[in-house]
User: Fold these one by one.
Assistant:
Number 1:
Amino acid sequence: MNELDLSGIGMTSLRTRFRLLDRLRQQGIDDEELLEIIGQTPRHIFIDEALSHRAYEDTALPIGFNQTISQPFIVALMTKALFQGGKLSRLLEVGTGSGYQTSILAQLADRVYTVERIKGLQNRARQKLRLLGLRNVQFRHHDGGMGWAAQAPFDGIMVTASPRRVPQELVDQLTPNGRMVIPVGDADGQQLQLITLEDGEMQVEVLEQVRFVPLLSGTK
Ligand code: SAH
């Protein structure tokens, strides 16, 4: 892939990217560093070519294997919530998917550890991040519901698939000031929750009603 493909000119005009940023601002995303990163990250390379003309619409899109790339507003909301307390050095992401959210996190943190249970998605994501020159990401093909104990603790954990309740293993892998953003619920309804620790006690703030794919066990 050449530079032209990365910039997306010809396929997706710069105007559509600016329109997306305006939309995110209107929805309350006011973190300018984050908006700049979203504006500069070519979302179209994470999507099948047949759909890439829709890459800068504020919508989730299929990425194969029955999974979806998250809606930009949700990516922005989750990232904003995770970083609202200040800089985070080491992050765990559960559910690499297309790698789009991973690439945003990699531009904000020192190191990102990302776990995906579907090998085919992980391979593609790894290739895209290499293309973008993002080298501070470590990938693991595994069931991420148990976190990544060997690399813990993490200053932040982002979960992009939905468990019925917050896995204690993930809470245990947070630093004392750590933060976790996670969609909790089932197919009937999910809440996006921000989890923080206060003297070791879990505090929960509900951010938004959301709809994510379920967090499944085992690998494929
Ligand atoms: N943030 C991603 C969206 C991911 S969709 C993006 O921007 O593209 C959720 C992903 O979580 C899917 O790829 C799914 O395979 C993965 N997933 C589901 N359960 C998992 C588990 N237990 N461990 C790791 N990954 C999981």
Number 2:
Amino acid sequence: MGKGILITFEGTDGCGKTTQISLLKDYLSKRGKPATVTREPGGTSIGDIVRRILLHSGGIALNSLTETLLYEGCRAQLVRELIQPALERGETVLCDRFADSTIAYQGYGRGIEIETIKTLNRIATDGLTPTITLLFDIDPKIALQRTSLRKNSNTGGENEERFEKEGLEFHKKVRQGFKELAKEEPERIKVIDANRTPEEIHLEVLGHLKRLLSV
Ligand code: TMP
């Protein structure tokens, strides 16, 4: 499908992937290789509306299956509206979370059957698999501490809220889920120790992508 490259960034809340995406984007644009950056849930007009429902729904009770389908709905739109066309044009797409997140969060975290999510992922992505996935692995306890330190920033506050809502045990299950996925697909999913400085992590990210992106 297309000639572009899809790189996805995964990990538990507060793992630092968003910082890495912006470091990589800057690195690539300085070398004349601009990348399209997007995120899940979101990245499209409808996706941004659904993101608000998913992440800021306050007191609204959201059944786990409903939640799963809303994530998949965002994904179906993002793939068709933005990712597929960009890949067809030969662009490099950096996506902050993708299908693996639903397996880790709604599957391992909430207990929705993994095979069901894999089927939904195939439908939503139209069979599109990332060229490579970088998994930023960190103990959720450490991520929570880091997030609390960033409390005053936008994402810091949001992340801390989510930690408080879901609790540490949930995030431990999610982390385990991501690790299982990396074991299943070691060629695609590269595990990166995220308990280091952003600069150290950035160097490892480049190490994984140098050949793929010829940079
Ligand atoms: P983020 O933008 O900080 O990565 O946060 C997105 C949140 O949405 C994060 O808590 C993980 C969650 N999420 C899921 O639970 N399932 C999914 O499929 C996706 C894409 C995200």
Number 3:
Amino acid sequence: MIKLSNIEKYYGTYHALRDVNCHIKEGEFFSLLGPSGSGKTTLLRTIAGFERIDSGTVMIGGQSMDGVPANMRPTNMVFQSYAIFPHMSVAQNVAYGLRSQRLGQAKTAEMVEESLGKVGLAGYGDRAAHALSGGQRQRVALARALILKPKVLLLDEPLSALDRKLREEMQSELRRLQRSLGITFVLVTHDQEEALTMSDRVAVMFEGQVAQLDSPQALYKRPASKRVAEFFGAMNILKAEIIKVDGDIATTQIEGLGVAELAIPTDANAASSFCAGVRPESMTILDDAEQAYAKETAATVTEVEYRGELTYYDVKFEGSDTPVVVSMRNTSNRKLREVGQQVRIGWESASAVLLLDQN
Ligand code: ADP
Ligand code: MG
């Protein structure tokens, strides 16, 4: 649906987008995720046609968008601040999306009501916009963007102004809306959890570059680099030495854990250096007789943090100084370990992932 090729964008001398390549499929819920300043909004505005690029191509629906102004593109955008006109009614706000269409009153009213229905605000047309709650205002902004039936809806941090509970409600609602409409959504967010729960695929951006484009599961389980791994929550980073390479599998010596066969990240080249990542929940402190894991390593507990559902243990593997976090679910029959205790940690090759060790 959207094909971005070799996009370069400068603001003066500032290199805002660096060789961005991205293929967004039709009907997909796609997210651009990255820290503040990573170029997400710039890329979204590039798709919308609000931003001139220095080189590269934007194709939408198989057509080059070169020279096509924003209002002629099959896209519509919902902005970070909802830009609702408080002095107008809900219906007037939604009809604003039709302003260039010169439709009759009856047709406009019908389309407004249809659009309000899609976002769960049927019958709200006569209300004053200023009397709406934050969540309702965001729905009005959505209805206004949907009224022209765009093939692609571009959403720039649409939920960031809402409090946590409302944000979570709106997340599932947006997801439902996207499924029922079947159109392509491109969402900008800096919130990892939001991107993981809502998206079919996510492009992770750092400093104007796409660092990895993958499904939420692949990003969490198989991050390609240390930076992506650490962006998605706690990841233990250990030194890793490659002993042998066989196709795309590397036999790897991991600090404190030992030898494992790990997949080599696709972006790796001869000059790459690596480390290994292990999530706290991918290792287990074994009970006395328990041996359900393919591999074991000896460790000492250095810190215990009980947090109700989970306990976080800081441990040190034998022969390593790197502190490692292991999280354990507090089931009824599991006893808490104590600082100084010697334990056995169960893990398997699938617990670890080989990461590009950039910067
Ligand atoms: P994000 O949406 O990921 O927070 P942006 O795309 O808004 O990031 O901005 C990326 C970088 O480009 C930032 O460093 C920002 O300061 C810069 N930038 C954005 N818009 C402009 C502009 N109009 N002029 C100059 N610099 C800009
Ligand atoms: Mg932004």
Number 4:
Amino acid sequence: MVKKTQHTFRKKWGQNFLTDTNLLRKIVKTIDPKPDDSVLEIGPGEGALTEIILPLVNHLAAIEIDPKLIEYLNNREDLRDCHFIHKDVLLQELSELPIPAPIKIIGNIPYNITSPILFWLIEQRSNWNEAYFMVQKEMADRLTGEVGTKAYGRLTVMIGAFLEVETCFSIPPDVFIPKPKVKSAIIKMEKRHDPFVLDENFNRFEKIVASAFSRRRKMLRNTLSGFGISEELKEKIDFTRRPETLTISEFSELAK
Ligand code: SAM
């Protein structure tokens, strides 16, 4: 794809645009949009993904923070059936979108706000059913990290308590303008039918997980001493263990 505008790339908004048509088609094939789908795209940029998905679905909305890009997108005759919203996605209520629920959420998202976007997804999980994001490869590895590995950490547990995450494929840096320093990956996310944590236990769960992983070389008996964990539970979950050896289910037990 040739750069279509005289756009000045803004680093603060994570602007690395996709330029490889084959890759864009591969991403869309993975997302597999169906005519009845209601799709929300986060960060359409100049519309590289938007223009392929729009003819395939009945409802498409896209949220973009950059006013210059919104002006450009709104002027594109071929994209007039897409609802463009000029907003910070983190301030968007999914229930207030101009497209029907449930929603499929997609996006080559700004890497600097990947974690906040993931927590935003969890908070609003009653309004969407599937999500496909391009993220840093390192982030994909963390989100899908197996218990006991280096990649397994706070984010694996926090996100994994609510969502099932799968890496679809990796992407090299040279398909973007400007070229990022890191590798990327497409991930697919679905909601767990039975999340590991109930809403009422969420705050305690978040604190326990953060505290346990704040010093991952330390045993739980040191990092979790202030949480009033029962002796019975300590018998069940050996407190000489280190945080990366605990499954998500075991962390959820501690938060009950
Ligand atoms: N989808 C385009 C592509 O693949 O070429 C652009 C992807 S670029 C990595 C991320 C896009 O998200 C940029 O267009 C950027 O302006 C936009 N963006 C950054 N922060 C945002 C936010 N908080 N809310 C909505 N859009 C945002």
